[in-house]
């Protein structure tokens, strides 16, 4: 389950921010997860709840924002929405669409005290 290592990385980012910005508690974490990233939101929630125990984020609400997948088709030159990696271009049906959005995961915002 790679979500556990991702949750640990998110927790490290939060703890680093707590030291830098001098906050003592996190109430809400907004996390953007791309639809093409192969990250399961439910697994991420479970892992985050686990790794945040006894930290500044213990009890914090994790809100997941789904980021749509899109790519650039080198055949027709268009940017298109895609549901999965390696999907054909919905306009010209050629393969080889290069993802340009939806593969990422990032902490978008923290609500802190």
Overview of the molecule:
This protein is of the alpha+beta class and 113 residues long. The protein has a single domain (2-112), classed as hypothetical protein PF0899 fold, CATH 3.30.2320. It is 27% helix and 30% strand. The chain has helices at 2-21, 41-51; strands at residues 26-34, 61-67, 70-72, 79-81, 98-101, 105-112. The strands form two sheets. Strands 2-1-6 form a three-stranded mixed beta sheet, covered by helices on one side. α1 crosses α2 (41-51). The radius of gyration is 17 Å and the shape is elongated. It starts with a helix and ends with a strand.
Element layout with pairings:
Layout (H helix, E strand, L loop, with lengths): L1 H20 L4 E9 L6 H11 L9 E7 L2 E3 L6 E3 L16 E4 L3 E8 L1
Helix pairs in contact: 1-2
């Amino acid at each position: 389950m790679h979500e556990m290592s991702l949750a640990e990385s998110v927790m490290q980012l939060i703890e680093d921010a707590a030291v830098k910005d001098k906050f003592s508690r996190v109430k809400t974490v907004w996390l953007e997860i791309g639809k093409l990233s192969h990250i399961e939101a439910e697994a991420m929630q479970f892992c985050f709840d686990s790794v945040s125990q006894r930290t500044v984020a213990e009890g914090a609400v994790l809100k997941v924002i789904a980021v749509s997948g899109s790519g650039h088709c080198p055949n027709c030159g268009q940017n298109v929405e895609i549901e999965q990696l390696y999907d054909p271009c919905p306009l010209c049906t050629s393969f080889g669409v290069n993802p340009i959005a939806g593969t990422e995961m990032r902490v978008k915002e923290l609500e802190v005290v």
